[in-house]
User: Fold this.
Amino acid sequence: MNLKIENKYDGLLLINIEKRISKLLKRVPQKYLLGLKLIIVVNFISRKNGKHILGRYIPQGKSNMPRIELAIDSIYNYHTKIFILIPFIGKPLLAKVLFHEIGHHYQTEHKQIKKKYWEDYAEDFAKDMMKRQYPILRTVLSPLKPLIRFLKKKINNSIS
Assistant:
């Protein structure tokens, strides 16, 4: 596989993010990664409206190769950045975003899906990959979903 991981994160990361991404990619069937050339790790990604997003897929264009960008500060929110150090939390948070963006790559390069269904396809792809990657974690955390949603809401309200 000729897939490069480029760390453009500005600051100190307490883990080897390239190694974590490489480990996640090893368990993704190669057919989903065909044509993907680069994954870039950055602090933030902003849309034109100023809203921060977790990641994005940029298809091949005249002047760029197909790539995925992952916004680490958004994935590991400022107030919960310590989660990056806790493997059973930090890895799945990163994996969900990475798999979602791989879903966008696969649908763009290999499927003919109408634009209005792109997000649904990428989200379904990510859910399927998460089930494969973390079957035990899902079983253990499933009963805790209401508590997790409550805590997320509290954290998001304290940020706003």
Observations:
- The two ends are 42 Å apart (CA to CA).
- Residues 142 and 148 are 10 Å apart (CA to CA).
- DSSP finds six helices and six strands in the chain.
- Helices lie at 17-26, 72-75, 87-110, 118-133, 135-141, 145-159.
